[in-house]
Amino acid sequence: MGGWSVFVTCCVWAIFLLALFGDSLASAPEFDPYKVLGVSRHASQAEIKKVYKRLVREWHPDKNKSPGAEDMFIKITKSYEILSNEERRSNYDRFGQMDENQNFARAPQGFRHFHDSFYFDESFFHFPRTSRDFTDSKHHLHYNQYITEVLPASFKRPYLIKITSEWCFTCIHIEPVWKDTVLELEPLAIGLFLGVGIGVVDIGYERQLANHLGAHRTPSILGLINGKVTFFHYAVVREHLRQFVESLLPQKLVEKVTDNSYLEFLNSWHEENKPRVLMFDVASNIPLLYKLTAFAFKDYVQFGYVDMGLTQTSKVVQRFNINTYAPTMLLFKENTDKPADVIQARGMKKQIIDEFVSNNRFLLVPRLVNQKLFDELCPVKQFHRRRKYCVLLVTGEGEQFVSVNEAFFDFASSNTKEVVRFAYVYQRQQQPLCDTLLKKEDTTPPQVVLLERRSATGRVLYRTVTDGWNGSDDDKHRLHEQLEILQRDPSYLTHDAMLPELNNEFASMFLIQWINAAYDYLSQFYFDLLYSNWREMMPVLSLIFSALFILFGTVIIQAFSESGEDKPTKQKATDPPKTAESSPGQESTSSRPPKKNFVEVTELTDITYMSNLVRLKPGHINVVLILTDASKQVLLRKFAKEVYSFSGSQTLHYSFLNVDKHSQWMDSLMESAPDARPSDCLDEEEDFTSNKSDYTGHVLALNGHKKYFCIFRPVFTGEEAECSRWSEEDAATAGPSKASRSRSSSRQKATTLEIHHKLDRLGLWMERLMEGTLPRHYVPAWPGLDTITPQK
After folding, report:
1. How buried is 196 (Cβ within 10 angstroms: 0-12 exposed, 13-18 middle, 19+ buried)?
2. Which of 128, 210, 486, 671 sits between 20 and 30 A of 288, alpha carbons compared?
């Protein structure tokens, strides 16, 4: 027991001393990056980069076989990583430290928190380096390199990236598997945009890049494709890593072709505007090499795979006379009976396949479907390169253009000069482009245009082939002659124009793009939730719970407010029954929709007069319908139908006044506001015969607080029409008695339908009332109903 206690005491003192003097122990660097590169402390970035490139070529282990070349190469690389980054260089100049995740601030003397002061440093313990440093250094990624090179390249090939650090002991355990996987995938990579990309991120030196990728612990392995990051969550086994790379690729990248489907696959070149590649091999699963090639050229070529080991593919194998002992690739363009190019080899290499597809990535006469294809087929003229001309057929999609298009294809197949590129365009799909090229000569398709691009902004020189294009032998001969003249004399192109950008004919609809983006986001959310990646999920979860809280809070507040508004008010005993209308005739222009399927209309009597008019709340308006006993039912039903769409307003109330009971109230109101008295022919005639006005069908909007009203006068019905047709000249000829008899007979002919139409324009009047554009008639005081005796 005594020995154990001494050992424990020594360990405690060792930890205490490390916590107290850790900064002084760790501050001594293993090497001086300035001395390693042989530059001064005031050297510029250009000088450091120039020296670094020279030393890397001199000490690269593949060229320098001396024993210390690998260690020196590692020192040169790390020195450049420190000095090429201004932040790390500043930290090294100030503190002599190289790891950006260390605490560079000088702490006061004494004890500090154990977590802040206690750390391991390679310069103190001097552990021997392993060969894994050189393997990782070849694929080491910087933030700027990731943004400018790796991220754009991920749209052409997938990347497998490892997140590690110098003192990650778990990383050492997976190192053999990682190294074997890299050795297997590296031969599939060619250049920057083909095969599988490998990357290593040191979380100590590249904290910004690790945070950008969402990696916060080591070791981590992730995949990058199409700019999207996917984490690897399975056991680190070589086969699992390979399957992970394959899973990054789109599912329907390569179509499996059989005897029943190969003709359909080859003949679909016209719709997709792409050559077709058939790959023949004896393997049930499509090899990764083929999938990577298909992904790299997915924008140019459509790929199909034929498993020669199946009985369902024997016809297609015999059809093209394929040797079953070696993998074969056939490339088809417009002619589906005969391949345009063929390669066959036992050991199919990535470089051979890529060169084969790259040289045949365009159809013989492709259709211009987007600006990117136009830029590649008809590049901008460069001074140091040979001129390239584009022969463009402007045509249509109908049956009448089929023979014309085929004749153009035949001409293009017999004129395969490198200096000339043939293409065609549909006028309906690319209307702005065709209008620009054909407007000067006012021609219509089909037409052939010779053009040369002069700038990336769209400037071209062009000339339309004379006499159009009908596909005849004379047309072919004429086009051939003009091409010969153009190659001898570039000034033959006489017209100058600025072409608009081409429409993308294959662009998916906005809704489809939004659905695909939402699906990717939800799948990533589910994946992160499944593997409890809580650190990355916290911002998303916080946003979701905040939105739910706001939503439920709004619903609860609205529910309580509506429950208060929906409490029924006590009805007075003298109120008449309500008028219901469930089918309003006009659309609502009010700010609130109706909450009920009926309109509450109260009779204006001597009992309800004070509350519904004189003592009405400020800002509230009572809309009053004037009627008689005979027209009550018809007008009330029409009135309710017209004002239903405005019944959602809380400031409008609806009443009716029976002039048979209160005959003098309207006359008293009109006397208080002379400017509101009507001046039409009806009033004049009725004043002439009897001093009594007919107010049936009038509607008043009464503001009890401000003592003004707006008036609606009914539209002409049968009786008013008769009056309007009774001219003053006829009245003078016939005399007063005849005019009175004529008006009396017209009143007898007035029907219920005519009374119903008195309120036809009430909806428009209500809209103007809500807008505040109606004329207002002010009164000094409201006439009272209690002093007027109703008629018996």
Report:
1. buried
2. 210
Give residues with Cβ within 8 angstroms of 291, minimum separation 6.
246, 249, 253, 254
How far apart are alpha carbons 511 and 495 in whole angstroms?
41
Cα 90 from Cα 99, distance rounded (Å): 12
What pLDDT score was predicted for residue 563?
52
How many other CB atoms are found less than 10 A from the CB of residue 450? 22
Task: Please spell the DSSP secondary structure of 580-621, one letter per residue.
Answer: E-SS-SS---SSS--SSSEE-EEE--TTTHIIIIITPPTT-E
* 299, pLDDT greater than 50: yes
**Could you check whether the bond before residue 446 is cis, i.e. omega within 30 degrees of 0?**
yes
Quote the crossing angle between the two packed helices 350-358 and 288-296, to the nearest 10°: 30
Give residue 454's Cα distance to chain centre.
34
Residues 698 and 714 sit within 8 Å (Cβ to Cβ): yes
Helices marked H in 449-509:
473-488
Cα 151 from Cα 229, distance rounded (Å): 10
How crowded is residue 621: how many other Cβ atoms within 10 Å of its Cβ?
24
Angle of helix 736-748 versus helix 718-725 axis, rounded to 10: 160
Phi-psi region of 772 (alpha: psi -120 to 50; beta: other; left: phi over 0): left
H helix runs in 363-444, sequence order: 371-377, 402-413, 431-438
Nearest to 59 by CA among 39, 33, 43, 37: 37
Query: Cβ–Cβ contacts within 10 Å for residue 374, how many?
Result: 23
CA distance 174 to 186: 18
For 1, the 3-state DSSP assignment is coil
Highest mean pLDDT among 68-72, 213-217, 298-302, 536-540: 298-302
DSSP type of residue 303:
E
Q: Which residue in 459, 427, 422, 462 sits closest to 441, CA to CA?
A: 462
What is the amino acid identity at position 774?
L
**Calpha distance 615→502 (Å, rounded):** 70
- Asked which of 29-33, 426-430, 661-665 is least confident by mean pLDDT, the reply is 29-33
Strands in 459-464's sheet, in edge-to-edge order, are 420-426, 389-395, 447-453, 459-464, 495-498
pTM of the model as a whole: 0.52
Cβ–Cβ under 8 Å, residues 119 and 23: no
| Backbone angles phi and psi of 705, in degrees to 5 | -75, -45
Indicate whether 788 pLDDT > 90. no
With beta carbons less than 8 A apart as the criterion, state whether 451 and 467 touch.
no
* 708, amino acid identity: Y
Strand 159-164 to 220-225 pairing: antiparallel
Q: How many angstroms separate the CA atoms of 393 and 438, rounded?
A: 12
Nearest of 102, 56, 105 to residue 76 by alpha carbon: 56
Per-residue confidence at 266, pLDDT binned at 50, 70, 90? Answer: very high
pLDDT tens-digit series, residues 362-387: 999 999 988 888 888 888 876 656 67
507: left (phi over 0), alpha (psi -120 to 50) or beta: beta
Token digits for 755?
């009374």
Residue 67 has which token pair?
């024993």
Cis peptide bond N-terminal to 219, omega within 30: yes
Q: Say what the pLDDT of residue 699 is.
A: 92
**What is the distance of C-alpha 367 from the center of its chain?**
27
The Cα 63–Cα 579 span in angstroms is: 100
Phi and psi at 580, nearest 5°, equal -110, 140
Q: For the chain, how big is the Rg over CA atoms in Å?
A: 45
Which has the closest alpha carbon to 121: 151, 101, 147, 150?
101
| SS3 assignment, position 721 | helix
| Cβ neighbours, 10 Å, residue 184 | 15
CA-nearest of 252, 175, 162, 168 to 215 is 162
Helix (H) or strand (E) holding 177: helix 169-185
Indicate whether 488 pLDDT > 90.
no
